[in-house]
Amino acid sequence: MVQNEGHACLVCMAAGLTPLAGGGKAGQNPGGMETRFFTLLAMGLCLAGLPAVAQPKSAGTPDPKLIEDLVVANRVLSDQGVVDGFGHVSVRHDKDTNRYLMSRSMAPALVKADDILEYDLDSVAVDAKGRALFLERFIHGEIYKARPDVKAIVHSHSPSVIPFSVSQTKLRPIYHMSSFLGEGAPVFEIRNVAGAGSNLLVGTPELGTALAKALGDKTVVLMRGHGSVAVGSSIPEVVFRAYYTEMNARLQGDAIRLGDSITYLTPQEAAAAAKTNAALVMRPWELWKRKAMKSE
Ligand SMILES: [Zn+2]
After folding, report:
1. Is 140 in the same domain as 241?
2. Residue 46 confidence class, pLDDT cut points 50, 70, 90
3. Which of 21, 212, 234, 254 would bridge with 146, disulfide CB 3.0–4.6 Å?
4. Are residue 221 and residue 156 in the same domain, yes or no?
């Protein structure tokens, strides 16, 4: 469940070694030669097991407003039912486009400023401080690599979206609020990349890259039998998109159950409405923020 970047070599730990430990003087320790041999062997194995990834350097202290908004986004997404105990939201670092910010592995509703960590685009934490990281952090790093226009990302398992990830019915904009869905959301089939027996999680850079490819230049990608990812040019925009993706799925399901043919937005209508809405994302953001942060 948890995954840390820290390295601890079990061979070294079992041998109780610091370098040169066990190398007592001849005569004082009859088993010295064997111990020394074992020490060197253990150290060799230990070094061979060290991760090849160098620890990334920090891009510096982010704008405090960015951290504040990221905390608010975690609370809002939870308060609005887009995420529950699972799901995550990230934002690109304001000082370096090759870094992003996201909480340690925890329930979004509980995130505080102190829980926010900095990652490079390989999703290596600059300083994990020994804390667990999200298994699916590669979703974020690989999308930031593939999409320079993306500044914030939400991954959720919001329930109404799931049926559209497993059926042939495409998630399409049913009303103006979800017009950012354009001609419909693509679906990422993890089985095509990970084979028939995966745990469905995007837990490697390769799977993150494949997901980013499935997203293409769209705003939302569904993940078969799992959830979805929304991207945006700001935290308020991506929260808006994650919320209205869930809402659209609920309404589209309702319309389908009515049994008649459905009139979706045309691509032209979707483009025009999306342009209008892009200027209005702060209105619900301020409302959701006030509700979610009431107890603070
Ligand atoms: Zn997930």
Report:
1. yes
2. very low
3. 212
4. yes
CA of 290 to the centre of ligand 1 (A): 27
The answer to whether residues 171 and 288 belong to one domain is yes
CATH code of residue 248: 3.40.225.10
* 257 domain-assigned: yes
Sheet (strand 116-120) strand order: 116-120, 99-103, 88-92, 152-156, 227-232, 220-223, 187-188
* CA neighbor of 143 nearest in space, from 220, 227, 78, 58: 220
Q: What is the pTM of this model?
A: 0.83
Per-residue model confidence as pLDDT tens digits over 281-293: 999 999 999 999 9
- Determine the distance separating the centroid of ligand 1 and the alpha carbon of 163, expressed in angstroms: 15
Percent of the chain with pLDDT over 90: 80
Ligand 1: distance of its center to the CA of 1 in Å?
Answer: 12
- Say how many Å lie between the CA of residue 155 and the centre of ligand 1: 7
Q: Which structural domain range is residue 21 located in? A: 10-48
Asked if 183 and 157 sit in the same domain, the reply is yes
Q: Give 16 Cα–ligand 1 centroid separation in angstroms.
A: 39
- Dist CA 289 CA 57 (whole Å): 32
pLDDT more than 70, % of the chain: 82
pLDDT tens across 198-216, in order? 999 999 999 999 999 999 9
In DSSP terms, 227 is beta-bridged to: 223
Closest CA to 76 of 243, 265, 268: 243
241 pLDDT tier (thresholds 50, 70, 90):
very high
Task: Examine the residue annotation and report whether 136 is marked as an active-site residue of this protein.
Answer: yes
Domain count, the chain: 2
Q: Which of 118, 136, 142, 246 is labelled catalytic? A: 136
Helix axes 282-292, 64-79, angle to 10 degrees: 80
Ligand 1 centre distance from Cα of residue 28 (Å): 58
